Amino acid sequence: MRDFSLSDTIAAIATPPGEGALAIVRLSGKDAISIADKVFQGKASLNDLPAGSARFGKIVDTEGSVIDEVIAVVMKNPHSYTGEDSVEITCHGGYYSSSRILQALLQIGARQAERGEFTLRAFLNNRIDLTQAEAVTELVSSRGEMRHRIALEQLSGKLHERLRAIIEELKQIVALVELGIDFAEEDIEIQSRHEVNDRIRKLLGELRELAKGYRIGKVIREGYQVAIAGKVNVGKSSLLNMLLDMERAIVTEIPGTTRDSITETITVNGLEIHLTDTAGMRDKTERVESIGIERAGEIIASSDLILLMFDPTAGFDEDDKRVVDAIGDTPKLTVLNKCDLLEEAGRERAVKRFPSKIDITISAKTGENIEELKQSIYDSAIVDDEKVGTEVVITNRRHYQCALTAITELENAAECKEGSEFLADHLRAALNKLGEITGEVTTEDILNSIFDEFCIGK
Amino acid sequence: MRDFSLSDTIAAIATPPGEGALAIVRLSGKDAISIADKVFQGKASLNDLPAGSARFGKIVDTEGSVIDEVIAVVMKNPHSYTGEDSVEITCHGGYYSSSRILQALLQIGARQAERGEFTLRAFLNNRIDLTQAEAVTELVSSRGEMRHRIALEQLSGKLHERLRAIIEELKQIVALVELGIDFAEEDIEIQSRHEVNDRIRKLLGELRELAKGYRIGKVIREGYQVAIAGKVNVGKSSLLNMLLDMERAIVTEIPGTTRDSITETITVNGLEIHLTDTAGMRDKTERVESIGIERAGEIIASSDLILLMFDPTAGFDEDDKRVVDAIGDTPKLTVLNKCDLLEEAGRERAVKRFPSKIDITISAKTGENIEELKQSIYDSAIVDDEKVGTEVVITNRRHYQCALTAITELENAAECKEGSEFLADHLRAALNKLGEITGEVTTEDILNSIFDEFCIGK
To answer: Which residue does chain B place closest to A91, by CA atoms?
Structure first.
């Protein structure tokens, strides 16, 4: 079971494993500075430093052997990430130094932090609310600009502020209704049911507006799922490779992007787009290509959009028809490939030969119209009337589900024909659900499930 | 070509790629603080902070959009790693934040650092010598305690000091000999050839002592190569697994240790020991096991020690003989496995049945005597008269080769029967080689080859 007490001092390595120039070991808690000082040898004691000081020194183990030369950064309650006294020790990278430093700290009184425990402490110390805590995992895992920006807005508290306003208004309504109950016998009406209903409906509008953003928020958060479908040799792999090569040219500085996986990610205007070749595995034998047809069904079902590819040099045949049937009603963009093989006039004729409306003609070989294709994919992901400006968007399923329940309860409240007690119950239920989003109302279960998604050291 | 100028300001991400809680973007150079300040928004300007300050703030891009919330640590010339003004920006982990922050810094005047360029600057600014610079890569890649300790001693300048003393003495001898040449026509002998020779021989002794440590230094740096040999079913895989399982129990906190590779590493008393199963791949089919026999020759040739395993329940047969022949003169420890299957008396009889002397009886199944086996491996790696205490050890091939050449030149000098000009030439050549180790005498080629081994951001 997770430890929700704030009485001990936690420590963890906060940088990813692997060989890098630097690594950070992080400490937080009331004894963070004195524990760090026990292993730190520098010109001054860490205990004597003002908040916001960084000092060079050596870390020694309990037997006095030097582990590494480091910079220790001292931060003090409440002006730190966690709101507690904190020390960040920047040491040489690689496995050894950071592990040994952590070990030394654990030996003299620190406790190994659990996943997300630094952020949990920031929450428990009221530095941030739950929406902000959740934004931290988002920030760490985001690759696209849009997702990053929304996470950052959430971290800076914009969703929190918007929810706070709604919660405050709801609290006032609840207070009025409950006051009405108290004074009911004395026949004093604090506020008319009609007025209360108006206020509830106004809140409902705001909450629905917030919830409406979830589809787009989900696309931004989880990326837009696009499957490339078409018969064998229509150019699915070539198109995927072309899209990836253009991406690679842009994002070479981002490591870890591998072309071995079945689903590849590109970003278009900052939106993450996950591309899956329905042939399953590229550059493999025909056998695998045929297995692909069977897997295609699953992939199509889990996609937001299908790129349906046709080959004008082969014409529309039974194989194409099978693919079209497999796609069914899933939203699609119809793409005529290999247009480099056709004259201008031939293209027009070819387009007319296909039963489906052709949305775009491209050449996966020469790259013709590939930018236009990317823009079309983006446009189908981010529908005009949902355009993401600076407004607050719900991206998180947990928030969405709480908001939906709150909306249902408010609808029940608005339509409540029974006594004020029932009305108050609905309003309280809505309030609780909104409080769950921000963390005003929490159970340990909610906290566990949220912070278990974090990495150690965060 | 590498840029050896110190006029610009360099920047790089200094933490490994991957999702972690925190990442560091590092800046060094005369404009480091002012460049960082242009993208930093905090309560105070970074320009106004005293050295050794850490401040919370936001990083904004050139268009004013917030990239992340960070801690910026300001260090000033000469009290920084590089000896220059430096800023370390600790941001949220993951790919996006650190890449965007780096990008923003590059847009406003910083240059992407090359491999090892921060450490190169520390060298060029005379903060450290080359032996210390080289220790930095060692520190980052070390996993074993011994290697780490020696790297740390080298970083702290112990090898540097020892070499400095030798170089200073050699410089004095050269000066005397050259003075002698100048005064030769006047028939004044500054110091007798005999006295000079005594001093050269004394230096030779010290250098040979230093070079002698290389074998042990190499073992510490590169680890001790141990091959497990024996016929099919003698228990090679079981032994390897037993050794690794014990290791895993100790080092579970170190990520990246995989059992899929052919060579596995354990540490014994802080020494890295690389174990290779001569069967090539474990847990595979018999076919692979038989391929193993052919590969065994290569593995044995590149090993420092062979664990030759026998099976007392099978007795010594033709297969054992083939393995013994394959090992030839390579140093070995003879191991009788499966002793859990034998009674005490049976063991003694079994030991006598084998033509080779049995060094140790073990059970790879129950773990019996496995600790003793590990100690025996360690003892054969670290021979008594080479025991590594706190003395300075050469671990680096470049240092060793320079030292060997210097020794040869000093030997030539000591035996030189020709004129003082020739003597002086040998001494100068030795001096140059020693200067190459510390970096007093360097060419850009040497610097390139050293710093190309670094990671970006170091």
So the answer is: B140
Q: What are the residues whose beta carbons fall under 8 Å from the beta carbon of B296, sequence distance 6 or more?
A: B227, B229, B278, B279, B280, B323, B326
H-helix or E-strand spanning residue A70: strand A66-75
pLDDT value of position B387 = 53
Q: Which of B13, B22, B257 to mutate to test the interface with A (most CBs of A within 10 A)?
A: B22
Domains of chain A: 10-128 (3.30.1360.120), 136-213+392-439 (1.20.120.430), 220-386 (3.40.50.300)
**Residue range B97-122: mean pLDDT, rounded:** 93
Structure tokens at A289: 């290509």
Contact A14 B26 (CB under 8 A): no
More confident residue, A47 or B222: A47
Q: Residue A29: which region, alpha, beta or left (left: phi > 0; alpha: psi -120 to 50)?
A: left
Q: Tell me the chain A residues in contact with residue B69 when contact means C-beta distances shorter than 8 Å.
A: 155-156
Q: What is the Cα–Cα distance from B209 to A138, expressed in whole angstroms?
A: 57
Torsion angle of alpha carbons B316, B321, B326, B332, nearest 10°?
A: 40
What would the pLDDT profile of B167-187 be if each residue is shown by its tens digit?
A: 999 999 998 898 888 777 776
B271 contacts chain A (CB < 8 A)? no
Mutate which of A10, A13, A15 to test chain B, going by most B C-beta atoms within 10 A? A15
**What is this model's ipTM?**
0.75
For residue A145, which phi and psi values (nearest 5 degrees)?
-65, -40
A382: three-class secondary structure by DSSP: coil
Taking the mean position of all CA atoms in its chain, how far away is CA A372? 27
Nearest to B144 by CA among B232, B224, B261, B24: B224
Inter-chain CB proximity A15 and B17 less than 8 Å: no
Residue in the structure block whose two tokens are 């002794």:
B205
pTM for the complete prediction?
A: 0.76
What is the predicted pLDDT for the residue at B260? 38
Q: For residue B375, is it left (φ>0), alpha (ψ between -120 and 50) or beta?
A: alpha
Per-chain mean pLDDT for chain B: 85
